[in-house]
Design goal:
The complex is a heterodimer of chains A (about 110) and B (about 130). Chain A has no helices and 8 strands. With about 110 residues, chain A is mainly beta. In chain A, strands 1-2-3-4 form a 4-stranded antiparallel β-sheet, with no helix packed on it. Chain A has a 4-stranded antiparallel β-sheet with strand order 5-6-7-8, with no helix packed on it. The radius of gyration of chain A is 17 Å and the shape is globular. Chain B contains 2 helices and 8 strands; from the N terminus they run ααββββββββ. In chain B, the strands form 2 sheets. A 4-stranded antiparallel β-sheet of chain B has the order 1-2-3-4, with no helix packed on it. Chain B has a 4-stranded antiparallel β-sheet with strand order 5-6-7-8, with no helix packed on it. Classes of the chains: A mainly beta (about 110), B alpha+beta (about 130). Chains A and B meet through strand 6 and strand 8 of A and helix 1, helix 2, strand 1, strand 2 and strand 3 of B.
Chain lengths: ~110, ~130
């Protein structure tokens, strides 16, 4: 689970959640608080699922990019680990995989110590 | 994240999902031994640099920690953190310092924490200090 880090969004109540099922059918879900027209100024609103995408191996950790304001409005990054390190761009209502990074062990035993 | 359950899934799926070629725990020893292994071990955790979001560090079951350049989409530095699986990683001072959880324990009593100071921005990694709390 990860809380939104951005401060420039009008709706800052945003959470990314990862499921943990011991099978290959896990998902990442993004939840936002949606303000309804009847909600009062004290921040009432319902929580809604705004996005869901597949992450077959369970995500061991999820983080939003720690940029308070994104470099470009087209980049709204989320990272997950599991079988790979994945960088997702969740801009414009869909999750696009920006990078799939494979942790290949390059060092032998005893190197780097 | 419960490390025992992560390992358990890892072990079971190696049999049920052969197309994904997840090795078993027993063969995880081979990754530690074999630097040219084509298998990749699961990543247990990561931390994203607050001051420079282009840097991100991952911790891996194969005993390594890797610092990635997110913009270039490539590994910047890799260190062997320990001779055991690494379960968590925390960044300090632009990856000049990292806190690692090494052992499979779930508590401080059973676990094993280490503070490793590395020069992640350089090509060669130098250990500054290594503090282990048993």
């Amino acid at each position: 689970m990860a809380w939104n880090q951005r401060t420039d969004m009008s709706n800052r109540f945003r959470i990314a959640l990862g499921s943990y099922i011991e099978e290959y059918n896990n998902k990442i879900r993004i939840i936002e608080r949606i303000h309804s027209s009847t909600s009062s100024a004290n921040g009432d609103g319902s929580l809604q699922r705004v996005m869901e995408f597949d992450h077959p191996y369970p995500a061991t950790k999820i983080m939003w990019c720690p940029d308070r304001e994104p470099v470009s409005p087209q980049r709204d990054l989320l990272a997950t680990t599991g079988d790979y390190l994945r960088i997702w761009n969740v801009n414009s209502g869909e999750a696009k995989l920006e990078a799939l990074l494979n942790n290949v062990r390059k060092l032998g035993k005893g190197d780097g110590t | 994240m419960d490390a025992e359950r992560l390992l358990s899934l890892f072990k079971r799926t190696s049999h049920s999902c052969s197309q994904l070629a997840f090795p078993t725990i027993a063969s995880s020893c081979r990754w530690i031994q074999n630097k040219n292994s084509e298998f990749c071990a699961p990543l247990t955790s990561f931390d994203w640099n607050k001051d420079d979001p282009s840097l991100l560090g991952t911790a891996c079951i194969d005993t390594t920690c890797t610092i990635w350049d997110v913009n270039a989409q490539q590994a910047k530095t890799q260190i062997i953190a320990h001779d055991k699986e690494v379960y968590d990683i925390g960044e300090a001072e632009n990856w000049r310092g990292i806190l690692l959880q090494y052992h499979r324990g779930r508590s401080f009593e059973k676990g094993y924490w280490g503070l490793s100071m590395i020069a992640a921005r350089q090509q060669s990694v130098a250990w500054r200090c290594l503090i282990a709390i048993h």
